[in-house]
Each structure stands twice: as structure tokens, then as C-alpha cells.
Amino acid sequence: MIDTARFIGAGSQRVLAFGAHPDDLDFGAAGTIAALTAAGAEVQYCIMTDGDAGGFDDRDPEETARLRHEEQKQAAAKVGVKTVHFLGERDGFLEANHDVMRKVVRLMRRVRPTIVIAMHPERKWDRIQASHPDHLACGEAVTRAIYPAVENPFSYPELLHAEGLEPYKVPWLWLCGAPQERENAYVDITEFFGKKMDALRSHFTQHPDVAAMENYVLQQCEENAVRGQLGKGKLAEAFHAVAVNASDTIAGF
Q1: Rounded to the nearest 5°, which phi and psi values hold at 196?
Q2: Is 211 exposed, middle or buried (0-12, 13-18, 19+ CB in 10 A)?
């Protein structure tokens, strides 16, 4: 089990969080992000698609994308995130291809985060709705970018030679939405659950039944806390935390 408290309490953290759609990070990690920013960490978001295929109203996709950008910026602000990057990929068509990976590597080299948060690249068979193909593609693109591309000067050499973006070794990758057997890190978000819910409520185009959404999220956070053995009455978010570059890491092994 990874001790997440030491990361939350270290105010010097720089975090780059990737979601496939607007609202994905709010479901998976907003409580953790609120805890990080409250401790002084700098957190930036990168939303990979415009979310233009989401929602329940008969609305033009371009208008949906515009609204969802605004919703995500409002949600981010509620958990202390000031910078939101949008990659502009089409909702439902995200792929872990080299065009997307180049964009991810570029952003990682610019931000140089100590922790990258992303969606898990493995499908959850117990609830397949959590494993939207864009979610899986987000996780796969970010994972491929983290090793080896972001730290390899020969990967996308134009980023180094034309843009001056030096290779960078990411220390940690935290994946949300993991199959339960992969979970190894639980963050106590009891104090920040209200902010998580405020962020989720910002996505008004996505929730035809707000009460049902809130009950579902509360139940999930309660169950996460039980699995993480955090104690009675606690609420938690769960991650598959991977040490990408630890003190004893040997490249290629």
C-alpha cells in the first residue's frame, strides 16, 4: 500500500492531471486534487477531448463543446486549479497515437510534474460503463508518453531541437478508475468531499438526475475508504500508483 499522506502534505508537488472528457477528473480525483492544492501544490489539468458527444440535450456538438469547456474551468477553480489545457480531440475518437502522444509529451516536458494523474488503461469488467474507450485511450497515451517518450531525447526530437523542451523523468503516475485488484493507494478526502461535489455539480449538461449522481459518488467514496482501511466514517479516492522513476529505478528493466 502506498502512503499517500506524504504526497498530500508536501506542498512543493507539481501535478499534471489528464482526463479524457470534461468531468472525468472530477469523478476520479477532484477530492485528492483539492487536498493537494490546499497543501500548496500546483495542479494543472489537461482534458483530451472536447466532450462534444456528451450530454442529454439536443444540442449542436460545437455548442456542447463550448459549454463543457466552461463547465470544466469552473469545476477546476472549485478545487484550486487555475490552468486547464484542452487538446481538442473529438469525443469518442480518442486514440493513443503518435499525434496525441506528442501533445502529451510536450505538455509533460513543459510542466515537469512530480505526479501525473490519468485514467487507467485497463478495462473494468465489473462495470464496463466506467471504461469508456476514450478513458482507456487516455490512460494508454499517458502511460506510453511517460515511458519512454518524455524522458527520451530521441522521441519526437522536434520537441527538443525546435521547441527546446528537454527530456524529463516523471517520478510518479497515479491512475484513477483502476480495476480494484490494481488499487494500491487511497487518499482520505473526507475534508474535501464537499469541494469534489461542488466541482461535479458544475457539469450541469451531464447530470439529468443530480441526486442519483451524488448518491453514487458518495457510495463509491465510502467503499474506497473501506478497501483502504481508512476508518469508520471516512471518504476516499482510490488509485493505482506507479513509481516510474524511483531512487532505485534502472532504465529498461
Answers
A1: -60, -45
A2: exposed
Q: Are strands 172-176 and 185-188 parallel, antiparallel or unpaired?
A: unpaired
Instruction: List the one residue out of 216, 205, 187 whose CA is nearest residue 30.
Output: 187
Question: Measured between alpha carbons, how far is residue 246 from residues 48, 151, 154, 171, 239 in Å?
Answer: 28, 14, 22, 6, 18
Beta-bridge partners for 47: 19, 86
DSSP letter, residue 2:
B
pLDDT of 174-208, one tens digit each? 999 999 999 999 999 999 999 999 999 999 888 78
List the grid coordinates of 213.
Answer: 449522481
Q: How much is the pTM?
A: 0.94
Rounded distance, CA 8 to CA 219, Å? 23
| Residue whose C-alpha is closest to residue 32's, from 218, 213, 226, 188 | 188
